[in-house]
Design brief:
The complex is a heterodimer of chains A (372) and B (250). Chain A is of the alpha/beta class. Chain A folds into two domains: 74 residues, no CATH class; 289 residues, no CATH class. In chain A, 18% of the residues lie in helices and 45% in strands. Chain B has a single domain, classed as Rossmann fold. With 250 residues, chain B is an alpha/beta fold. Chain B has a six-stranded mixed sheet with strand order 6-9-10-3-11-12, with helices on both faces. Chain B is globular, with a radius of gyration of 18 Å. The chains are: A alpha/beta (372), B alpha/beta (250). At the A-B interface, α5 and α6 of A face α2, β7, α3 and β8 of B.
């Protein structure tokens, strides 16, 4: 665990330019003036792979939820943790009690400084969210990396939703541009539960996201919206599997990538409909915008359907900015460059518009501006 | 206003316009009629600078300036407005923001002060009201999910805001019911003045009952084969294109 004097020392460290953020990393300022600091009902901060209680804040959630770092969870709440979760030392635990309605954001902030490398080249996190019967929460997980040194970050997250539970999950991956990031997200949904994931990938030299969603209760609904911005020589890989295991579950997936320079994006999305999963609804879309000749993309949306009464679609597009739209804007007097910016913004705006929380939407929007 | 001399245009390898000559003076309304595939939309697109309309020969002047040398956006700034037959849907671009950006870019190029967001809202609300367009459309994305009639009204709304000098309207009447047609025509007529001209491209005489032209031209196989006043349009309505093209096409 990070000691007080360590953080004091960290505060004094001046970092190089990275990600377009300010040259000097003032941890105190970054955390305390984070636009969501006041909005969030609880904020757990991790610095260089270690929980930092002195920067974290939690409100009184007694009776509603338990929000704890993983170490504390293993000590105090082991009885609530299913056996299947492996024991990694760091990460978070979020437990929503039956019928708990947590309307404000719960924010988990993972910061990596240049010291991450010295401390431990490979950082590991284990996260678990359990949403009991009819509970409801909004959870924002943010990775924020500073400096230019390469670190490696591995995270495994599991989210279990009981009947009627509702989890809105927001994920912003803004690691430094030399880092390696590998994340796995496993979601299990019971009957009539609702899970949404608004996911933004802006950082890392190599970013791999693996998502596995199991719809195992009737009427479960899952919405996955994600946007990757990939530039330089970076690589962003997205692998997704949604399993419809029971009748009448519904899933909607839209993954977008903007790829420029010599960057690469990969999308592998599979929807499996089990023989018994009649009346499933599943839509899977992947749209890619290539902005340079050397940018590349692999897209493989797949459907694997064993039931006969289902509504399923899948599709993928790869292209440049739409010429007809560009002509339309220019024909109204908007200069070529501005018109292109507007269309680029529009491509991303669709994903931003899906974030209901206004402060969070603005915050993610600002991150886009800094990254483009 | 507009002077077209021997305009020949290819799309791909195919020649579509075979030498158009047309003089439009300020204040005049010219209707271009013709059967499908005669080159009407190509003519309209060429004036606006559509990339696939490749000019092989000919001259086009707008108020004495060489129109063909101008970029698409410069043509708009000089006062050309193309009302499109199938306006494109642009999800993610807010209608009001789009129009304000357009107007201010045009004003900037003409050394006029920009209009701030507050004044613009009032302006656009007034114009939308005139066209019977619900205010909800202003906060939606450009043409996104609009019906055919709503798209056409939105074209006219843009025209009322941008106040162009040369209005080129490409089948602005297609797919409109009578109410929408009247609203669209009222929009066009409200802009008619001695300093503005209209080039109206249409299949049908119906539109010309609402927007009465000074001249009517029949375009056939990429050439203007007949010109006259509004009586010519009535003749087309009565006799069909086949008779007129047979009488006039050599």
């Amino acid at each position: 665990m990070l000691k007080k004097k360590d953080t004091q020392r960290l505060l004094k460290i001046i970092f190089n330019k990275q990600l377009g953020r300010e040259n000097n990393l003032d941890l105190n300022n970054t955390i305390l003036n984070h636009p969501l600091r006041n909005q969030a009902v609880a904020q757990l901060v991790f610095i260089d792979g270690v929980y930092a209680p002195e920067f974290s804040k939690s409100a009184n959630l007694v009776g509603l939820a338990i929000v704890a770092d993983w170490k504390t969870a293993l000590l105090d709440y082991a009885h609530l943790i299913p056996d299947s979760v492996e024991e990694v030392e760091e990460g978070f635990f979020c437990y929503l009690t039956e019928k708990a309605q947590v309307s404000q954001l719960v924010h988990f902030l993972f910061i990596c400084t240049e010291n991450a490398v010295a401390r431990n080249r490979s950082l590991k996190f284990n996260n678990l969210i359990i949403a009991k019967l009819s509970s409801n929460a909004k959870i924002f997980v943010e990775y924020l990396g500073f400096g230019e040194k390469q670190y490696e970050l591995n995270s495994t997250s599991k989210i279990y939703l009981e009947n009627n539970a509702q989890v809105s999950y927001y994920n912003l991956q803004n690691n430094n541009l030399n880092s390696i990031y590998k994340a796995t997200l496993e979601v299990k949904q019971s009957a009539a539960s609702k899970f949404s994931n608004n996911h933004f990938v802006f950082g890392s030299a190599l970013a791999e996201e693996n998502l596995n969603i199991k719809l195992q209760g009737e009427g479960a609904l899952c919405n996955l919206y994600s946007l990757s911005l990939v530039n330089g020589k970076r690589d962003s890989k997205w692998a997704l599997e949604i399993e419809h295991l029971v009748p009448k579950a519904e899933s909607h997936t839209l993954h977008k990538s903007i790829i420029t320079d010599q960057a690469h994006a990969g999308f592998r999305g599979k929807i499996k409909i089990a023989p018994q999963a009649q009346q499933s609804i599943a839509h899977l879309k992947n749209h890619n915008l290539l902005l340079s000749d050397d940018a590349s993309v692999d897209s493989a949306p797949e459907l694997e359907i064993y039931a006969d009464d289902v509504k399923c679609t899948h599709g993928s597009t790869v292209g440049c900015l739409d010429e007809k739209s560009l002509f339309y804007l220019r024909a109204r007097g908007i200069p070529d460059k501005t018109a292109k910016e507007m269309l680029l913004q529009a491509f991303m705006q669709e994903m931003l518009d899906k974030i209901e929380n206004e402060t969070l939407r603005e915050y993610v929007g600002d991150c886009i501006i800094r990254n483009t | 206003m507009l002077s077209i001399k021997n305009l020949q245009v290819n799309i791909g390898d195919k020649q579509i316009l075979h030498g158009i000559n047309l003089q439009v003076n300020p204040g005049e309304v010219h209707a271009i009629m013709g059967p499908n595939g005669s080159g009407k939309s190509t003519l309209a697109g060429t004036l606006a600078g559509r990339a696939d309309c490749e000019v092989t020969t000919g001259e086009v002047e707008l108020l004495g300036h060489d129109l063909l040398k101008m970029s698409i956006e410069d043509r708009a700034a000089q006062g050309v407005f193309l009302g499109m037959q199938n306006p494109v849907e642009i999800p993610g671009v807010n209608n009001t923001y789009f129009l304000r950006t357009a107007l201010n870019n045009i004003r900037k190029k003409n050394n006029q002060p920009e209009i701030d967001a507050f004044d613009f809202i009032n302006l656009i609300k007034e114009k939308a009201g005139f066209l019977g367009l619900d205010e909800a459309f202003l906060s939606r994305a450009v043409n996104d999910g609009f019906s055919g009639g709503e798209k056409k009204r939105n074209e006219i709304l843009q025209m009322l805001i941008l106040e162009p000098k040369l209005m080129v309207l490409d089948e602005i009447d297609s797919g409109l019911d009578v109410d929408a047609l009247q609203a669209v025509a009222a929009g066009v007529n409200s802009l008619r003045s001695s300093e503005r001209s209209v080039l109206l491209v249409t299949h049908y005489q119906r539109l010309l009952n609402y927007i009465v032209p000074d001249y009517v031209h029949i375009l056939y196989q990429g050439k203007i084969i007949a010109s006259g006043n509004k009586e010519l349009a009535l003749r087309v309505e009565k006799e069909g294109y086949a008779k007129i093209t047979k009488d006039n096409f050599q």
